[in-house]
Design brief:
The protein is of the alpha+beta class. The chain is built from two helices and six strands. Strands 1, 2, 3, 4, 5 and 6 form a six-stranded antiparallel β-sheet that branches. The longest helix has 10 residues, at 52-61. The protein is globular, with a radius of gyration of 12 Å.
């Protein structure tokens, strides 16, 4: 059974090589991604994307390839 606390813990976290973006993946109840713009010690509010196709479109529009992502 999935609880609310489990739903709010990311199952994976990535950063781009320039550390301008942080991407968190959540599996509750569908696959969701939270995108944060990072600037030193500050972060933006999350941009929520639902599903892999939404993440793929976002990565393409920001010219970020999968090779540019590092696990955090």
């Amino acid at each position: 059974m999935l609880t609310y606390g489990d739903a709010m813990d990311p199952s994976a976290v990535w950063r781009d090589r320039q550390h301008r973006w942080r991407i968190e993946a959540y599996r509750a109840p569908d696959l969701r991604f939270a995108i944060y713009a990072t600037n030193g010690p500050t972060e933006s509010a999350p941009l929520w994307l639902f599903g892999m196709s939404a993440l793929a479109r976002w990565l393409m529009t920001h010219a970020i390839s999968l090779d540019d992502l590092e696990t955090d």
